[in-house]
Amino acid sequence: MAQAFEIRDRFYGKNFIKIAQVERNGANHVIKEYEMELKMSLAGVKEYTSGMKVLFLESYRLKQFFIKADNSELICANGCIDTIYILANNHGIKSPEAFGTLVCNHLLSEYDNMTMAQLTIEDFAWNKISYDGDMNCEEKTILHNHAFIHNSDCARTCTVTFHRKDDVPTVTSGIKNLRLMKTAQAQFIGFRRDGYTTLPDIFDKLLCTNVTCTWNLKKGSTYEDYNRIWNDVKNRIIKCWGGDPVEGVLSTCMQFTLQTIERNILESNPEIISIQMLMPNLLYADFDFSKFKTLEIKRGFRSIHIPSEKPLGAVYGELGRLETKQ
User: pTM of the full predicted structure?
Assistant: First the structure.
């Protein structure tokens, strides 16, 4: 007897779409570079079932036939890539979130058989080269008009998902590859112990992580909101991690630090509905000098550690707002 199947999920699109935008305001230039990933879903399934061998029962005998290939409803992904470049040229990329919304809205308006459009964007940021009192510059700090250096301290990300059945898209902003370290005010003590636990209490340790953070804003946000809040979230992650510039702030564990950062961000940005953070615990183990019995090992202000990223402790948390009843 022939087996029956159903198509439960599907999408298609294009990955690694590269785009760079240069804006020239006289001699002053600005460059933005992005990598994008486009996903689309269509109402029909003709393109998936065309050419399939189908079995059916006729007069108690099993017969087979092939469905004729039919791509008539399939939207060309290459054309959608060209659409992205044209929209960037005509409207500009004011923020990744605003541009993703523009593209998804355009695709759903243009193609009546498209049920979902999703654009994921990663910002490859360029900063202007600055000069500090050299190169015959009279000012203390001056920015070059048209020369840039790549900013590699972290990456800005966003994902815009628009379903035809919804009134507005879902917009998720984010930060990734924000690597942070502290060499004091970090400990790990008082944790649960059993027969399998050999780790001792650590009262003073190096704490390092590589932050991935995403958040969702309320409906009606503008590109100015997206840009302002992204910068604020990044700055608050960094400042909450370090604390006071002289005294610092104690981290009893990565979970506590993660929750402190998320709470600070939500309290300061009422537009954010919820925030998610992944903060792996990257290990910097103390080098063991005790095995060198015959050598003089100096002790003092310097310590030596071995960075090791595998295995690592994966710490995740999501913080959202409670809905208050009126």
Answer: 0.84
Q: Tell the burial category of 324 from Cβ atoms under 10 Å away from its Cβ (0-12, 13-18, 19+).
A: exposed
Residue 255 annotated as binding? yes
- Tell me whether residue 188 is annotated as binding: yes
Residue 213: what pLDDT?
98
Element counts in the chain: helices (H) and strands (E) = 5, 14
318, two tokens:
């999501």
151 plus 175 within the same structural domain: no
* Confidence band, pLDDT 50/70/90 cuts, at residue 286: confident
Asked whether residue 3 is assigned to any structural domain, the reply reads no
Q: Which of 65, 48, 283 is nearest to 181 (CA)?
A: 283
3-state secondary structure of 37: strand
**Which residue in this structure is represented by tokens 């506590």?**
256
CATH number of the domain within which 229 lies: 3.10.270.10
Half-sphere exposure of 274 (CA within 13 A, CB side): 11
Nearest to 45 by CA among 12, 3, 85: 12
User: Is there a single domain that holds both residue 193 and residue 301?
Assistant: yes
Closest CA to 102 of 216, 217, 223, 219: 223
